[in-house]
């Protein structure tokens, strides 16, 4: 790996064309670049899309290692964080601070980042909850023997009392001998009006028996 590094540093020249001292100097410059180069890299480092505040701060600290900022290190880190935050709302909030140091800038930026994330998560949860409530529910019943869920059986016919659709009932046009109205038989009559005359009990019985067929 060392030879490959030397060859890359010397290219387009060959290692044999350089003295040992020249090779050592090239390697040292690579491993410990001049502060001006490091500062350029530091000052052009912006937060990438999707990069967290914590990761960006860690990267700035790493880049500042060989910048030789000395006593101005904290100020340079603060300024780079504010300028390179790549978030307009957070940047405005930081610039609004009258007295802002690096530690305070990190606290404000991370707090706002967390607030935005929590808001998005809450909105997503509410949206999912609304979708789930819009789904039609399927009614089931559980029998006493615990045989699992079964669909509801057909409702009782209001015309004759059978288990079928009232629209398909054969007594749909029948005349009730209790209220003399069409559409049902006597056993399903809901009329409270007293009838005049004697009701043919045999006919009512026949209607009831026919409903069970």
SSE topology:
Layout: H1 2-10, H2 20-31, H3 35-43, H4 53-63, H5 73-84, H6 88-95, H7 102-133, E1 140-142, E2 149-151, H8 201-211
Antiparallel strand pairs: 1-2
Helix pairs in contact: 1-2, 5-7, 6-7
Structure description:
With 213 residues, the chain is mainly α. Among the domains are: 32-119, Orthogonal Bundle (Non-ribosomal Peptide Synthetase Peptidyl Carrier Protein, Chain A); 157-191, no CATH class. It is 49% helix and 3% strand. It has helices spanning 2-10, 20-31, 35-43, 53-63, 73-84, 88-95, 102-133, 201-211, and strands at residues 140-142, 149-151. A two-stranded antiparallel sheet has the order 1-2. Helix 1 crosses helix 2 (20-31), helix 5 (73-84) packs parallel to helix 7 and helix 6 (88-95) runs antiparallel to helix 7. The radius of gyration is 43 Å and the shape is elongated. The N and C termini lie far apart (95 Å). InterPro entries: Retrovirus_Pol_polyprotein, Znf_CCHC, Znf_CCHC_sf. This is LOW QUALITY PROTEIN: uncharacterized protein K02A2.6-like.
Strand order of the largest sheet: 1-2
Structural class label: mainly alpha
Order of helices and strands: HHHHHHHEEH
Number of helices: 8
User: In percent terms, what proportion of residues is strand?
Assistant: under 5%
Return the CATH architecture of the domain at 32-119. Answer: Orthogonal Bundle
Shape, please? elongated
CATH topology of the domain at 32-119: Non-ribosomal Peptide Synthetase Peptidyl Carrier Protein, Chain A
CATH first level of the domain at 32-119: which class? Mainly Alpha
| Gyration radius over CA | 43 Å
Name the quaternary structure: single chain
Helix content: 40-55%
Low-confidence stretches: none
* Number of strand segments: 2
Q: For the record, give the distance between the C-alpha atoms at the N and C termini, rounded to a whole number.
A: 95 Å
């Amino acid at each position: 790996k060392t030879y490959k590094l030397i060859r890359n540093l010397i290219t387009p020249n060959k290692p044999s064309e350089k003295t040992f001292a020249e090779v050592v100097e090239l390697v040292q410059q690579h491993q410990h670049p001049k502060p001006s180069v490091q500062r350029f890299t530091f000052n052009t480092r912006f937060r990438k899309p999707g990069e967290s505040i914590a990761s960006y701060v860690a990267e700035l600290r790493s880049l500042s290692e060989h910048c030789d900022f000395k006593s101005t290190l904290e100020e340079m880190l603060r300024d780079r964080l504010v300028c390179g935050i790549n978030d307009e709302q957070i940047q405005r909030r930081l610039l609004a601070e009258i007295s802002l140091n690096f530690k305070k800038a990190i606290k404000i930026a991370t707090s706002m980042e967390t607030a935005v994330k929590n808001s998005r998560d809450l909105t997503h949860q509410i949206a999912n909850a609304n979708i789930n409530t819009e789904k039609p529910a399927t009614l089931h019943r559980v029998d006493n023997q615990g045989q699992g869920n079964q669909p509801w059986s057909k409702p009782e016919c209001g015309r004759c009392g059978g288990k079928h659709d009232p629209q398909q009932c054969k007594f749909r046009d029948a005349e009730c001998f209790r209220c003399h109205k069409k559409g049902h038989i006597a056993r399903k009559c809901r009329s409270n009006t007293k009838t005049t005359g004697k009701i043919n009990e045999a006919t009512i019985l026949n209607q009831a028996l026919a409903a069970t067929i």
